[in-house]
């Protein structure tokens, strides 16, 4: 029993220990994932609610693990954030997504905005603005075709710093949107002073639309708030016709969700863009 004890991490049950080993192993593999070209981007269309046209795509990263298959970002992004790897991964994502958008443009396909997620950790990196600038230079993508999605927590928890940083990013010409809007209870005065262009209604409220009541009220308020502040508004996680109709009635600008398309690899987006061009 004594020997057995030695091999155990203090205070851990065997399943917890297994979990920790998996995490450590996964983290060391993640270090090499970029150079081994195991990260891939999927893209999910963003649709203008009135015209039905694809106006943008959101880049969503996946890890094509050699043994475990496709690992979702919810599993490895937190690991990357804990280890600082998020800066390298974030740069890879931004660069790959920007290059992809430029490639579609070079093919003469209809213009779409490329939305890229930024993690809080990237936001704390003093070289963020420089990095975004470099990527735009390197890929030749116009900043008008790039959108950065930040979370509400970045916007509210950090105090004066984000405003200056967001302003610098906006000066590059990129669009800034607040992701998962409504989940972090930011004050109205805070939103008013943030230099952002767009609010993205959190999925939980969009899903709640079908049940009526409070979530409908929240979704409606976010849309009206955006309008009165002169911001555009997009709803994510739209899955049903009922949700879509409600959002249309409330004059939400854009929608994104499984009701239209799931995130998909680049060639499928290219095919969609070709179809739009033919119409
Ligand atoms: P998010 O930015 O809020 O992205 C939306 C998530 O909802 C995506 O999951 C997307 O696939 C999923 N989704 C889209 N439409 C629907 C729908 O109609 N119904 C439902 N149930 N889900 C829908 P995914 O791709 O697993 O990404 C999860 C999260 O991982 C993202 O949430 C984002 O926070 C993070 N993430 C993804 N890619 C990146 C990245 O490149 N960098 C950073 N920092 N985070 C990323
Ligand atoms: Ca997002
Ligand atoms: Ca979200």
UniProtKB/TrEMBL annotation:
Domain EAL: 23-277
Keywords: Membrane, Transmembrane, Transmembrane helix
Top-level taxon of the source organism: Bacteria
Transmembrane helix is among the record's keywords: yes
Name this protein carries in UniProt: Diguanylate cyclase (GGDEF) domain-containing protein
Species, as recorded: Anoxynatronum buryatiense
